[in-house]
Amino acid sequence: MQTVRQQMTALLSQQVCSARDLSQRLSIQEKEVYSHLSHISRSVVSRRQRLVIVPSRCLACGYVFKERKRLTRPSRCPRCRGERIEEPKYQVV
Ligand SMILES: [Zn+2]
């Protein structure tokens, strides 16, 4: 029986997932997803892998949150102040 974190790592090795995708696939809350992701980002390093964050994007002006290091979705766009922000996605490569 795999732990949730192992299942999440396996999913992220196969495909790009958002926090919402992961919470639905694994039947856990989104906030739990983020705590697992931060552990995964450290644990995969020993296998010479890394957690890649596909940055969020503002749906109004197209601004990309490239420099953002946090895992969660930003709440507001610094360029246009829009609040319709696409979720970041994650992948283990
Ligand atoms: Zn914007």
Give a short synopsis of this structure.
Helices cover 35% and strands 11% of the residues.
Ends distance = 23 Å
Each distinct ligand: zinc ion
Characterize the overall form: globular
CATH fold-level label: Arc Repressor Mutant, subunit A
Order of helices and strands: HEHHEE
Main structural class: alpha+beta
- Approximate strand percentage: 5-15%
SS element count, helices:
3
> Based on DSSP secondary structure assignment, what is the total number of beta strands?
3
Number of domains: 1
Gyration radius (Cα, Å) is: 14 Å
In the sheet with the most strands, the strands line up as 1-3-2
Poorly predicted tracts of residues: none
CATH class: Mainly Alpha
Helix content: 25-40%
Give the rounded overall mean pLDDT.
96
Question: What is the CATH architecture assignment?
Answer: Orthogonal Bundle
The biggest beta sheet is recorded as: 3 strands, antiparallel
